[in-house]
Amino acid sequence: MSMKHNFSAGPSILPQEAIDASIEGIKNFAGTGLSVLEVSHRGKEFVSVVEDTQATIKSLMNIPEGYDILFLGGGASLQFLMVAYNLLETKAAYLKTGVWAANAVKEAKHLGLVEVVASSEDTNYNYIPKDYIIPTDADYFHCTSNNTIYGSQMQSFPNSPVTMVCDMSSDILSRQVDVSKFGLIYAGAQKNMGPAGVTVVIVRKDILGKVSRKIPSMLDYKLHIEKETMFNTPPVFPIFAMLQNLKWVQKVGGVNEMQKRAAARAELLYNEIDNNPLFSGTIAKEDRSQMNACFVLNDASLEEKFNAAWKEAGISGIKGHRSAGGYRASIYNALPLESVEALVNVMRTFN
Ligand SMILES: *Cc1c(COP(=O)(O)O)cnc(C)c1O
Predict the structure, then answer these.
(1) Is any ligand 1 atom within 6 A of the Cβ of residue 152?
(2) Is 214 tagged catalytic?
(3) Whose CA is nearest to atom 13 of ligand 1?
(4) Is residue 10 part of a domain?
(5) ∠ CA(318), CA(307), CA(266), 5° rounding?
(6) Angle between helices 303-312 and 337-349 (to 10 degrees)
(7) Mind listing the pLDDT tens digit for each residue in 106-165?
(8) Distance 169 CA to ligand 1 centre (A)
(9) Which of 251, 271, 296 is the last residue of a domain?
(10) pTM
């Protein structure tokens, strides 16, 4: 359909195959002759979509026994609050590596004591702090695997002495992760998993039920688990479309293949950023994200000309986030290497 090179940060590029299969489901869902938009979420066809989506995520991410997968509304931002509601009794530890991490801290503070174990805020979040100590008396430790706005990424995860919770919104399914290290993982779907409107929560049941506060129904993970993620109407279409994307990931080779492709895209782009005297990367090299590459033009007066050049090449979505400035090329799972080649070509030939 579109000839664009889509570098949008989120909602973001999906494989054409997943879009086509989603359109087909809107027209005729699972051979019912009805649209997926107009059938009951409790009908057997849609229940099977939910089960299939859970099973596919389990298999793609190698999720061990003991974890449940929920499909909730409210975005990753609601998880900032839900995590604390369900897990924070007295004190929680947070690693503050960006705007989203800071928002998570802010929400948790409504419910208890928050200890920020380390922060890179004073240098505009341009690196991932590494020498921090997670207090053993914290109820949990929260981190953000990929800092979508500034373009840094945790290259490894600590061995947390307490339950580890991670916001993986912008790099889930892009690399192998040992899920058993985490008590809870959440991700807004609109970066690497599917369209906006559904948030995936992967939670180990045994961490729940330990806080003394009363939890309102809609915020209660246990209740959502008990009701098999259908306590209320789930985001039916976003789940359906997400499944089409997951099937694509599976078909082309799973997370291993996604990891290889991510490395190839990132290498090509960062090489150009590093070798082209007109541009500079903004993040400490060892912490650079394989999903969001942030850079600036060294001579800001060239911006207008550069903007015209990439637009001319059919590129969209590389303007930096309003709180970071510069440029951000989001190079998510579904982005073909050819799109990165197109951008690199513009950077190389432009001056
Ligand atoms: C996009 C993003 C969010 C916000 O997600 P919403 O679904 O808009 O609430 C949170 N965390 C990270 C890491 C993100 O990339």
Answers:
(1) no
(2) no
(3) 169
(4) no
(5) 35
(6) 140
(7) 999 999 999 999 999 999 999 999 999 999 999 999 999 999 999 999 999 999 999 999
(8) 6
(9) 251
(10) 0.98
